[in-house]
Amino acid sequence: MSEELICHCKSSLGEPFTSLNDLAVHHVSYNEFEKQYVELSEWCERISTVIQQSSYNALTCYLRQKYYEELYEQGLMRLRMFNQYSNKLIERFPDIQVVIEKKIKIIYQIWNDLEARFIGYLDEDFDRIIQDLHNELFLFEEWITEIEEQLAKFHFIRNEKIFYEDIQELMKLQNEIKSKNSRVSSVIEICHRLKKRLSTTK
User: Fold this and answer.
1) Which residue of 33, 80, 162, 200 is most buried, as measured by CB atoms within 10 A?
2) Model pLDDT, residue 201
3) CB neighbour burial string for 48-62, b if at least 16 within 10 angstroms, e if fewer
4) Among residues 61, 70, 184, which one has the least CA distance to residue 128?
5) What is the C-alpha to C-alpha distance for residues 31 and 37, in angstroms, rounded to an integer?
C-alpha cells in the first residue's frame, strides 16, 4: 500500500458525512451506538483474522492487493461514520460521555491493530515476491515432470485393454491438472503486473 493512500485515507477521518451531518441530535440513540460498536469491532476482528491467515505467501498478497486496499478504505469509512455518530450521541447525552469515549477508545485500539496488519500485508516486498515466484515456478516445473511421467504410461496401454483402475487413475490426473488452472492464471497475472510495474519505473 502506498504511503499516499494511507495519508489520504487518514486525512479524511475527520471529514463529516452529509447524511450524518444532517442527522438531528435527538434521532441518535445509545442502542444504535452499541449496535454500531459491536458490528465494527467484529468486522475488524474478522478481517484481521483473514489477513493473518492469508499473509504467508507474498504472491497471494500481491495478487489481492487491490482488494485489500478497497477493504482498508471501507473500514476507514465505517470508522468515520462511527466516530461522527458518537459525537452526535455525546451531544445528546453528555452525562454518559465517559462511557461513550471509553468505547471509542477501544474501537480505535482495535482499528490501529488492524491497520498495522493491513500495512504489513500490503507492503510491496518485491525481493520476496520475486523469490516466491521463483519457488512457485520451480515447484510447478517439478509437478509438470511428475504429471508427464504418470501420463507416459498411458501411451503404452492405449492399444491394449484398458482396465477400470486405469480410467480412474486417468480421471484423477485430469482433476489434478484442472485444479492447477487458477494457480497458473494467478502466476501469469502476477508476471504481467511485475512486467508492467518494471516498465513504468524505467
Assistant:
1) 33
2) 63
3) beebeeebeebbebb
4) 61
5) 10
Angstrom distance (rounded) from CA 71 to CA 133: 25
First-to-last alpha carbon distance for the chain, in angstroms, is 21
Q: d(Cα 176, Cα 171) in Å, to the nearest integer?
A: 9
Name the 3-class secondary structure at 38.
helix
The verdict on pTM exceeding 0.85 is: no
**In which region does residue 163 sit, left (phi positive, over 0), alpha (psi from -120 to 50) or beta (all else)?**
beta
pLDDT at 21: 53
Q: pLDDT means per 10 residues in the chain (202 residues)? A: 48 49 68 94 91 70 78 90 92 92 96 86 70 82 85 67 73 81 77 74 60
Nearest to 33 by CA among 89, 74, 79: 89
Please report the sign of the dihedral spanned by the C-alpha atoms of residue 24, residue 30, residue 35, residue 41: positive
Whole-number pLDDT of residue 188: 80
Would you list the DSSP string of 140-202?
HHHHHHHHHHHHHHHHHSTTSPPPHHHHHHHHHHHHHHHHTHHHHHHHHHHHHHHHHHHHHH-
Q: What angle do CA 113, 115, 119 make, to 5 degrees?
A: 120
Task: Round the CA-based radius of gyration of the chain to a whole number and report it.
Answer: 26
pLDDT of residue 146: 86
- Return the pLDDT at 24: 58
Q: How many Å apart are CA 133 and CA 58, to the nearest integer?
A: 9
